[in-house]
Amino acid sequence: METYEVFRRSGHKEPFEHAGAVIAPDPDMALMMAKECFVRRREGDHLWVVKRADIHSFKDESILEIAADKSYRFASAYRDVIQKREKALVRAQELEQKT
Amino acid sequence: MSDNAALVALLTALADDELILGHRHSEWTGHAPHIEEDVAFSSIAQDEIGHAGAYYSLIAKLTDQATDQIALGREPSDYRNAVLCEQPNGNWAFTLARHWLYDHADDIRLAALESSSHEELSAIATKLRREERYHLLHADSWVQRISSGPVEGRARLIDAMTEAFTDAMGLFEPIELEEAAVKEGWLPVPSAEMKARFVERTTTALDDLGLPTEVRAIDDRAAEFVASSSGDLIENAAAGEGPSPLPIAHGLGGRKGRHSPDFEILWTEMTSTYQENPGATW
């Protein structure tokens, strides 16, 4: 018997999401079990099963931590750009009026 | 000269290496061999520039200047990055060989700096080293695959590695006022000792990968230099004191502010936005 991880899609344009796991002797049986366990109330229109042994992950998950400042990757870091732009426009208008 | 001069000199060399290599790396954005790698390598470029920012912020605090002014407001001869970092990207093989050599060198350097007597520098080293682990993983993964892959890629990597390896020695050219920085414990391991660790580590790794460890001999002394790990001859020659001054291709001079003509081009582009309006905040 093998453990299969089950991924379910809730609608045509939705991503597959992890739903749980089943224990089965082969992929076809795993799909059957997964249907009964995870799509019994119309939770999805598509199912994947993946042998758990075929899933790869980092041995040390701490490599995913962000060590240094990455604020520039977030839109919130640029919030003041709008104010700066407005101020610059005012300055530009003032200059134009002077000349 | 303040009491901090040796510390500032050390931080400047560290920061400039990261900024200039980060800038070179960023030139691959939109051009890397495939889209996932384009994103991955651009992220590494951002990381390196971020690391430069961490060092520049500390310099800014010590010298009461603005970070941007230090990073982008200096003249080319004020930069103390190793010449290796400013070399044009050339092809992907050279970029990769340099990335691999640089990040192993940086790991050795950060490991040493973690025990710096300067608390803030030591804290930065610990923080950056966590991120550099991923850079090493990235560089090692590529080099391992290409060195055991088809012959064309392997041949290109060998060419690039022998070329970049010579220049990598410039990363361990003593920094200005190094004696004082070592004496204060700011730089706990002298450059010469870090170079020995670097040569040992990289030649062992290249042996394990089945890649040759000789360097491209621009002249005979270049080969002797790495084989014996004795930099004296090259040092004198690069300073114009030897019988025949060696070309800058040996990768030395950067720590004294002597750069290749390519650096001028990089500097002009890198600082162009800053020069438009030096006081602006972004």
Question: Outline of this structure?
Answer:
Chain A has 99 residues and is α+β, with helices and mostly antiparallel strands. Chain A contains 2 helices and 3 strands, in the order ββαβα. Chain A has 2 domains: 53 residues, Roll (Ubiquitin-like (UB roll)), CATH 3.10.20.520; 38 residues.
Describe the protein.
- The complex is a heterodimer of chains A (99) and B (282).
- Chain A is α+β, with helices and mostly antiparallel strands.
- Chain A folds into 2 domains: 2-54, Ubiquitin-like (UB roll), CATH 3.10.20; 61-98.
- In chain A, 31% of the residues lie in helices and 23% in strands.
- Chain A contains 2 helices and 3 strands, in the order ββαβα.
- Chain A has helices at residues 27-38, 80-98, and strands at 2-9, 16-24, 46-51.
- A 3-stranded antiparallel sheet of chain A has the order 2-1-3, with helices on one face.
- In chain A, a hairpin with a 6-residue loop joins β1 and β2 (16-24).
- The mean pLDDT of chain A is 93.
- Chain B has 282 residues and is an all-alpha fold.
- Chain B has a single domain (5-276), classed as Ferritin, core subunit, four-helix bundle (Ferritin).
- Chain B has helices spanning 5-26, 35-63, 67-72, 83-86, 92-113, 119-147, 151-168, 178-183, 191-209, 220-228, 232-238, 261-276.
- Chain B has 12 helices and no strands.
- Chain A binds chain B through residues 62-63, 65-70, 72-73, 84, and chain B through 46-47, 50-51, 53-54, 127-128, 130-131, 133-134, 137, 281.
